Amino acid sequence: MSALGQKQLDFAKLQYAENAPLMKDIATKQGLMMDQQMAQGKDYYDYNKATFRPLEQGMVTDAQAFDTDAMRNQLATKAAADAGLAFGRTRQANERAMASMGVNPNSARFQGIGSQAALGQAGMRAGAMTGARQQAQQLGYARKLDAAGLGRGLSGASTAAYGSAVGAGSMA
């Protein structure tokens, strides 16, 4: 029985001697792979932290500032001013056209056309202001969604690289 045990021990020593260089090479490569993946994980993390975190924070701040009553009112005021400017130009063109046809600016016809234009302008301004507020609200929400989704995959890439490094280290 001891002879059998000795044969098994001798065989194990022989196998170890034959496989030791290969196993050492594999362990060395797995250790290098672990180091490389740890560095890659840190690089992903540092890149995310230095590049996307400030960008995300800025976008979130901008999105939050955009999605306010003050911004909606500012855009509505601008829309009303743009509508007023457009109507003013149209009114001036109409006045010139009427004057070229000899229509008296003090006539009831001229005044009636002016009243219709003023009513149309009021309606257009109200519609423009309401539309601007609604668009601002929708755009503010969309900006928040964009800001929340920015750079989300980078933390996963960092975690995956660290996980691969742990796996390579465990096999070494």
TrEMBL record:
From which lineage does this chain's organism come? Answer: unclassified sequences, metagenomes, ecological metagenomes
Which species does this protein come from? marine metagenome
What name does this protein carry?
A: Uncharacterized protein
